[in-house]
Specification:
Length: 190
């Protein structure tokens, strides 16, 4: 008399196929992640230039704000990017700048002056307007002193500077904090 239970043969475990609704839900779930990742990858910011925001724009003048920790080398890289765009396409739209000469049949960006600041208050519209109007001499002096970079493009020449604007020619004394990167003639853009 053997009271021990007899072992039963294991039944083969069969996996049930996923239901069509479950397959669709998983496809939507993973597809949405793929779309989000793809969109983030395609719209990622340009890491070769420092982050910047347009503070204000009046006519052909544009004030830009960069973070306070932005180095002169990074500002120089940003100025060189403006220079490249000015030479190749003269289309600053992808750089978030509205047309500076919108009614000019020869081009929407024929002339542009870009002022770069690390303190966002100097990039605000009232300050830019006061600087351009020239009414308040103290604002003009402060604007020039607070400047960290400058790029200007006209029909005939372009100029790039690092540091504040100095009155008069560059000298050895001003080279420590302000210097001209380039100033040269350009060919008219077609």
């Amino acid at each position: 008399m053997n009271d021990a239970p007899t072992p039963q043969a294991p039944s083969p475990s069969q996996k049930k196929p996923l239901d069509t609704v479950v397959k669709l839900a998983l496809m939507v779930f993973f597809g949405s992640f793929a779309l989000i990742w793809g969109g983030m990858y395609l719209s990622r910011p340009d890491r070769s230039i420092p982050p910047y925001s347009i503070g204000s724009q009046e006519g052909t003048a544009v004030s830009i704000h960069v973070p306070a920790w932005t180095s002169d080398t990074e500002i120089e890289t940003l100025i060189e990017r403006f220079r490249k765009v000015g030479r190749e396409t003269r289309n600053f739209g992808p750089m978030k700048i509205r047309p500076t000469t919108p009614d000019d049949p020869a081009g929407r960006y024929r002339r542009i002056s870009i002022y770069i600041f690390t303190h966002d208050a100097w990039a605000e519209a009232p300050i830019l307007h006061q600087y351009l109007s020239g009414d308040d001499l103290e604002v003009r002096k402060g604007f020039k002193r607070a400047l960290r970079g400058f790029y200007q493009l006209t029909d005939t020449e372009e100029e790039g500077r690092i540091g504040p604007m100095v009155d008069g020619p560059d000298s050895a004394a001003t080279a420590a904090y302000s210097r001209q990167l380039f100033k040269q003639a350009v060919t008219p853009h077609r």
